């Protein structure tokens, strides 16, 4: 989870790329990445909810 100081909780391409990299690294270690939340002024975004992970 992290915040976007701009207030827009939409994930950037870097957010999506980094999340996929973390999930790929964690998988062989038996660690499941359940979600990546982005918090903004107008609410939050779940990358799992957007089917990006």
What does this structure look like?
This protein has 53 residues and is of the alpha+beta class. The protein has one domain. Helix content is 26%, strand content 19%. The protein has a 3-stranded mixed sheet with strand order 1-2-3, with no helix packed on it. The longest helix has 14 residues. The mean pLDDT is 93.
Which characteristics define this entry?
alpha+beta, 19% strand, 53 residues
Helix content: 25-40%
* Average residue pLDDT: 93
Query: How many strands appear in the DSSP assignment?
Result: 3
Tell me the β content. 15-25%
Structural class: alpha+beta
What is the terminal separation in angstroms?
14 Å
Report the total helices: 1
Q: How many whole angstroms does the radius of gyration measure?
A: 11 Å
User: What would you call the shape?
Assistant: elongated
Strand line-up in the sheet with most strands:
1-2-3
N-to-C SSE string, H for helix and E for strand: EHEE
Largest sheet: 3 strands, mixed
Total number of domains: 1
Query: Which stretches are low in confidence, meaning pLDDT under 50 for 5 or more residues running?
Result: none
What's this entry about, in short?
By secondary structure, this protein is an alpha+beta fold. Helix content is 26%, strand content 19%.
Break the fold down into its secondary structure elements and pairings.
Blueprint (H helix, E strand, L loop, with lengths): L1 E2 L9 H14 L10 E4 L2 E4 L7
Parallel strand pairs: 1-2
Antiparallel strand pairs: 2-3
